[in-house]
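Practice problem: predict the structure.
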Amino acid sequence: MSFIRKIKIGKRVYLAEVKSVRENGKVKQKFIRYLGTQIDGKPAKRVLTKDIKIKNVKRSLDVISIDTIAKELGISSIKSKHFLALVYSQLLEKRSINKLEDWIRFTEIPDVLGIKEVSTKELYESLTDIEDEEFEKIEFAMQDIFKKYDDSIDVAVIDVTDTYFEGDSEEIQKRKGKDGRVRKLLQVGLAVSFQKGFPLFHKRYQGNLSNIQIYKDMTLELKERGMNSVIIDRGMMSSENLKITQSLQLKIIAGLKKTQTFASEFLCKINREEIYSLKNMVKLKNTFVFINTFDYSNGKLIAVYNPSLEVIKKQLNFNRGADEIDPFIGYSLIYHNTEDSSYDIVKKYYDKEIIERAFKQIKGILNLRPIRVWLNNHVEGHIRICYFAYAILSLMNYKLRKLKISSIDALNSLKHGYKVNLRSDKDNFEWSLYVPLEPKQKKMLQALGVVYKI
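Answer:
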């Protein structure tokens, strides 16, 4: 009966198949064949170079990076693996669904998700595979994960964006969008955490609703989810919305429209020389502003004077030949009912650009606009795909922060991390290896917690 013997020569360990035989009354080991070497305690089979054939080459490291983050967030628990394939594809390839089938086959998406066959038909049908109950369960679970990384998870920044729909659904009305074109518009309200921009929840609305109406609905969702503070832009605020916010006992930081009432009751009382002083100065990322604070509606009203903005707006008015100049040009208003100082509030309010970056990624990188599916329920599926994809991107951004590289740049680099699957027909043996990685790529994988075998 044969067995494997380890033969150590120098620092290398060789493996050989031998069997015991008796010669002249003594038991000896007879060499049968050389099997290979032992690397890191594991056998490495010997295969002749002339017998090696490339079975296939697949994009791998960017896929398993996404899959690693999706597993941590619980997104990979989605029952429909074809829906999950669309989420992964949304991050890696900007193609319409009818052009994804062939591309996916050349990635490790089917392997990591356990999909045997990929077809355009199944990809289209998967848009409706995730039900409300399953989606909400995963969305709530993600919040618990994000809490580990962001202690501002109970402070939501809310905004709304337009996207348009090219299908035939009669439920979606045409309206003029921000770009001036009249089309079938949808609106997506998004809430993200204040510090890290992690997605908290999203809601879809008809295109004919105002931001003020949308805010009323989203505040109820905030309260139901246990969040206690909200930061919004002036387009969502009204006197009625302020009362609703206060009745729900929510803390709020909000921009206010510079109405004639505010101008006459507050801005007229400001002494220009007094506000334009060192004690009233607040340093923002790219400029300096000056503030004056008033009591207002069980909170504080902060008048923010921006000299740089005043100069720019006045010059634009001069260029248009305007005779009258707004005496309060360069001023804006912020309301809050928190315990924070006016200085901190102004910095927080202008730091809310985190949600603008979120929408930039969702609408640009993730291609929320346009929605090129034709059924109403397919639209919802597409929005949810973009939402999950953004959740993955946001956590990747956090994990890569120390390397000072964005999740998008990391994925662009890792897409060259190909997995080469090899085969020797002579030995009936298959194995895989990765193309050599740069040190920077290895650091990315380590930061993301990706485990892979060289």
